[in-house]
Amino acid sequence: MEPFQVITGVLVDEPDKILSFTDICHVYQIPEDTLTELLEHGLLGHVTKPLAQVDFDLHMVHRIQSARRLQGDLGVNTPGVVLVLELRDALMALRSEIEILRRHVGDVL
């Protein structure tokens, strides 16, 4: 049996908190080349700024954390990670629309 790997990090749960590329790499112990690869594959959509100038909000941080879990826990490659997260976002949007429609139909009936 393999020993457990201890992972340390900082929980950022301030909606207005903005982190830099360097902050993300340092706080979440993500190698710069790994974060660069995720961003180049579209993890956060099309990034127009140089990566060193990108500011990360809480939503972006959560996507990066999810991406790292998919890579580390399930061994999903980078393009697969982006696809999984895009499909998850689409599913969540559809569920939200269904809930709105259910409420609307309930009001009509």
Structure, explained:
By secondary structure, the chain is mainly α. The chain has a single domain, classed as Multidrug-efflux Transporter Regulator, Chain: A, Domain 2. It has four helices and two strands. The protein has helices spanning 21-27, 32-40, 58-74, 78-108, and strands at residues 19-20, 55-56. It has a two-stranded antiparallel sheet with strand order 1-2. Helix 3 (58-74) crosses helix 4 (78-108). The longest helix has 31 residues, at 78-108. The mean pLDDT is 87.
Largest sheet: number of strands, sense, barrel closure? 2 strands, antiparallel
Classify the helix fraction into a percent range.
Answer: 55-70%
Total domains, how many?
1
Q: CATH topology, what is it called?
A: Multidrug-efflux Transporter Regulator, Chain: A, Domain 2
Low-confidence stretches: none
The CATH class is Mainly Alpha
Sketch the topology as an H/E string, one letter per element.
EHHEHH
What best-fitting shape do the alpha-carbon axes yield? elongated
Briefly say what this structure is.
With 109 residues, this protein is mainly alpha-helical. 59% of the residues lie in helices and 4% in strands.
Name the descriptors.
single chain, 109 residues, mainly alpha, Multidrug-efflux Transporter Regulator, Chain: A, Domain 2, 4 helices
Describe the protein's topology.
Layout lengths: L18 E2 H7 L4 H9 L14 E2 L1 H17 L3 H31 L1
Antiparallel strand pairs: 1-2
Helix pairs in contact: 3-4
